[in-house]
UniProtKB/TrEMBL annotation:
Pfam family, one: CitMHS_2
Membrane spanning stretches: 12-30, 88-107, 119-136, 179-202, 258-275, 304-321, 333-350, 459-478, 499-526
Annotated segments matching region Disordered: 59-85
Classification via InterPro entries: CitMHS_2 (IPR031566)
Signal sequence residues: none
Lineage per the UniProt record: Bacteria, Pseudomonadati, Bacteroidota, Cytophagia, Cytophagales
UniProt-recorded name of the protein: Sodium:proton antiporter
Length: 527
């Protein structure tokens, strides 16, 4: 059965590539010399909605000019451009996927775990084919493909490289020891990303608590290490990295996000400490060692070099450095060298890893496989939802609603259910557009971040940044590491709460109050 599943997985991956293959016929050749690239101001990771809207505007201008030359009306150009817009019902596949992710493990577990790759691929294919052949819109699927390509390359390389590092903490589990480890993870997340920190520390965290492990241990790990912890640097969380690539200064996040980050970490750690002190249940009490060395042993440390290579490769971007080869598509330059480096790290870090460390970590490819397929479905089906939200945000009605409060709750609410990286870009683009700024202009993004030319812009950007990171922990699908940590925990037999159970038992009663208090302190009355 496993062999059949693996064979099917290979087939659907090939099918996905073939599904997008007609789009590549319009891609320009790889550029090794970017002499005229100064005219290209876009950055490497562009969300599908913004790029599509920009391209549609250009298409409409071209059509109007063509109409003038041939006696055609402006109305024809408008009708042609509007044909690219998805109708409201096109979000149904995305809603169906979310519902199945939420209910599958709870009500039809065997069917879901056997068939989730087929379901995710099928729903994504429906939306992609509708975009290609009904809307005649290639831009959305192209951008969704490259966003997914970049997303899975980063997650897979960090997951596999960290899987070869075994950390053994020979210390008695206690609420204080656990709290210190979570705080350390929150700091480390800003150095190697929330994904890297999660993959590096989740196994030691579970081993430390193996005699008293409960689902809340994993949930608060997701809250603190996999999400909120990565608020201080662009490396910390994908939305902040996209902002950095757009032009937000590297030091901006630690300067403006530090106090919300500190409050969030202290709040969540205190709640966790309260939970952990009340946990008196001991599993296999007779097996608990009586003597501890209180030492930390690390094996497979050479894989830290592979992690370092992944972090360095993150900055190899063709829109930051002109000499980096790129794939050109309608004025956009898409990275592929960075992703090839990351996939190479996947292979070599596993091929030359310390086998004892791999074995001690009970390393398995299943968690990254599950994330890969689930997020194929998410990236493929969420295109209409993101586009409709972006259109409203940029409309005259939406512009009137722009404030730090609406940006905080709007960005946050969608970041919990859509991938928080494109959500961040959509709301940043909308907030800039409301003041006449262009997200595709590096100089204007810098001015917007520094607050030198646009009123309240620093506050708006801060609201978007904090919301995208904090709300990413509201559900399993809000941020890539969440689902991966859940899958790892389930691999070792921890019964994790369902999609709705996670929200009802943990994120709403414990994470949401922290989010509300953060809003009250830092945003509600801020000027």
């Amino acid at each position: 059965m496993d062999q059949d599943n693996n064979r099917f997985s290979t087939r659907v991956i090939i099918f996905l590539i073939l599904l997008f293959s007609p789009l590549f016929g319009q891609l320009y050749a790889f550029e090794l010399d970017s002499g005229n690239s100064s005219s290209v101001n876009e950055l490497s990771i562009e969300n599908s909605t913004n790029s599509e809207l920009a391209t549609l505007d250009q298409d409409q201008n071209d059509q109007e000019q063509h109409g003038e030359e041939h006696g055609e009306t402006d109305e024809h150009g408008s009708e042609e451009a509007s044909s690219h817009k998805p109708p409201g019902w096109s979000v149904i596949p995305f809603v169906v996927l979310l519902l199945m992710i939420a209910t599958g493990p709870l009500f039809y577990e065997h069917f879901w775990h056997k068939n989730y790759p087929k379901i995710a691929i099928l729903l994504a294919a429906i939306v992609v084919l509708y975009y290609l052949f009904a809307l005649n819109n290639e831009h959305g699927p192209v951008h969704a493909f490259f966003e997914y390509f970049q997303f899975i390359a980063l997650l897979a390389s960090l997951y596999i490289a960290s899987g070869g590092i075994h950390i053994d903490i020979d210390k008695k589990s206690s609420p204080m020891a656990n709290s210190i480890l979570l705080i350390c993870g929150a700091v480390i997340a800003n150095l190697i990303g929330t994904t890297g920190a999660s993959m590096l520390l989740i196994k030691p965290f579970m081993r430390l608590n193996k005699h008293r492990i409960k689902p809340y241990h994993i949930v608060f790990f997701i809250f603190i290490v996999s999400n909120v912890g990565g608020s201080l640097t662009p490396i910390g969380d994908p939305p902040l990295f996209l902002g950095f690539l757009k032009g937000v200064p590297f030091e901006w996040t630690i300067t403006h996000n530090f106090f919300p980050w500190l409050f969030g970490i202290i709040f969540l750690t205190m709640v966790f400490y309260f939970f952990d002190r009340r946990n008196k249940d001991i599993i296999d009490e007779d097996e608990i060692p009586t003597d501890f060395t209180n030492k930390i042993k690390v094996s497979g440390s050479k894989n830290f070099a592979w992690l370092g290579l992944v972090i360095i490769s993150v900055f190899i971007d063709p829109n930051v450095f002109d000499w980096v080869p790129a794939i050109n598509y309608h004025g956009q330059r898409f990275s592929f060298i960075r992703e090839l480096i990351m996939f190479a790290v996947c292979y070599f870090s596993y091929r030359f890893a310390d086998k004892e460390a791999i074995k001690s970590n009970d390393f398995s490819f299943e968690p990254i496989r599950e994330v890969a397929f689930i997020f194929i479905g998410i990236f493929g089906t969420m295109m209409p939802a993101l586009e409709l939200v972006s259109e409203f945000a940029k409309s005259p009605e939406g512009v009137k609603l722009i404030s730090q409060n609406t940006l905080y709750w709007g960005t946050g609410a969608l970041s919990g259910f859509l991938d928080n990286a494109p959500t961040y870009l959509n709301f940043l683009a909308a907030s800039m557009a409301s003041q006449g700024a262009d997200i595709n202009s590096i100089s204007e993004v810098v001015e917007y971040a520094t607050g030198s030319s646009y009123p309240h812009s620093q506050l708006y950007l801060k609201a978007i940044s904090i919301a995208a990171v904090f709300f990413g922990a509201m559900t399993y699908i809000g941020n890539g590491p969440n689902f991966m940590v859940k899958s790892i925990a389930e691999q070792v037999g921890i019964k994790m709460p369902s999609f709705f159970g996670y929200m009802i038992r943990f994120s709403i009663p414990f994470l949401l109050p922290m989010i509300i208090i953060t809003w009250l302190i830092f945003f509600l009355f801020a000027k």
